[in-house]
């Protein structure tokens, strides 16, 4: 896996993990202010969620990288078989 393809895999993995992590710990405020959405989180904690997303995506990327490097999954052999 080259640098660019590795980066693309990481970015895609990061976005998928982000959408899985965003709902964690979301609580609506007890008394929403007028003009605010009722379902908006009281404290979104986006920096923490970005950090957790980055860590999880890095672990998943490492697993994908090791699978590709070990030839356990060979995309070239799959393409030849088609």
Number of strands: 0
Distance between the termini: 21 Å
User: What characteristic shape results from the CA principal axes?
Assistant: elongated
Please trace the helix and strand order, writing H or E for each element. Answer: HHH
Q: Helix/strand/pairing class, anyone?
A: mainly alpha
Number of individual domains: 1
Question: Beta-sheet strand percentage?
Answer: under 5%
Major β-sheet, in short? none
User: C-alpha Rg, in Å?
Assistant: 19 Å
Commentary on this structure:
5% of the residues are buried. The protein has 82 residues and is an all-alpha fold. The protein has one domain (3-81). It is 61% helix and 0% strand. The chain has helices spanning 3-21, 46-69, 75-81.
Q: Would you spell out the secondary-structure blueprint of this structure?
A:
Layout: H1 3-21, H2 46-69, H3 75-81
Could you give a quick summary of the protein structure above?
This protein is mainly alpha-helical and 82 residues long. It has 3 helices and no strands.
Which labels suit this protein?
82 residues, mainly alpha
